[in-house]
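Q: Two folds, back to back.
A: First:
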Amino acid sequence: MDHPLPLLKKHLKVNQTEMINVLTTAKRRIEGFIRKRALDPRFATSGAFRDETYKGISGHYIKLNKELDNWGDSVVKNTSKDFFIKAAEDIPGGKKAGITKFSKKYAKGYIELVHPKNGPALAAVRTQKMLQEDIRQLRNVVVETFREGALTGMSSLERKKALQARVTKLASGGSESWKFISADGRAWESGNYFMMLNRTVTSKVARETYVDSMVESGHDLATIEGGGDPCPVCAAWRGVVVSVSGTNSNYPSLSNAISAGVFHPNCVCEPLYIDETIGKDTLDKQAKTPNPESPSSEEWTKYARETKKDSPEGPVSVNRKTEALKAA
């Protein structure tokens, strides 16, 4: 059977491309709105007009949240379907069990898992900070221009032109909230939130789909597999046989692995079905083996030094990695 990583990477690439389209379109839309408002003479003379501008920016970020939610739904539908098919090919009896008969009920369940219907928007935490940063920068530009105008004796026309020029510059690639992505969307800041979101959502959907497929076809044992540069926890669990249901006491449960920190945000580890006949030697060797030990502080320190925050997998815990960096 094929390793799950190539299929996962394929979906990560496709999903990232779609996310870039959403983000670059929203960026152009928000910047265009700000430039248009700045060119209106009332922006320099009316506090009420500026307040309406801030409210309008908020509306554009609400729209972006909805578009990112739709992106998430698309990720769920496409990724889960392909991993259902992969599971059917990997697992004996998978096709007979009918797990390739992917239906809307599966997609609906995974969508609810990724972002609950009554919960916050998928990227709300980040987009709210971006909104606040945009408004903060705009307010600062207004205050600084008015202050300079008072000190230098600018006329109202000079002040209006100065404000228009500065806001236009801000809304033409100068906003701090959008620094993580280039204007054409080709260059991304390493480790940015949206890159992490794509990796986390895509991997989670792939993993849950594959595990559900195993359970549906009556199979319980899998190994933890992955690629890239694993964090110490994931490295310790690579190749370990786990019981998906937790009912086989000969092996650690999948829940044990998750509790230890495997499948953390940004993680590309995936469970892979192990054939109990072909993989008998591996199963016998690992039977009754205790859970892998938690990484030592020295291992975390070494990991932090070597990755310098640029690991493709990222930390199990931001706090744990920060502590390791401080200790380095």
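A: Second:
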Amino acid sequence: MSILNKDPDCTAYAWSANLAGEMLRYIIERDDPRLRFPVGPDALPFLGWRTSVSDEDWIGLGALERDADYFERVFLDTGVDLLAVMSGSHGHHSGMTF
């Protein structure tokens, strides 16, 4: 999939990059035993989605040949429109988990 092949200087990523940087700093500087550190408004729905998908289905998502198929699956399962997020036309930007 080419989702991560976007230009890192794209303004659509500026918000999430700053927030992710703050979280990385927190992780480095604190002794917090948590395994996951959700960042951004869509991070928790994604974590919830992951727990609802079997390991086999999760791995199968990586085998989808078209990004559009992945985007559709995410939207149907979570309500998060990744295509809009990636294009910057979404009201906020997707979350991530460290």
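Q: And?
A: Confidence is low (pLDDT under 50) at residues 1-13.
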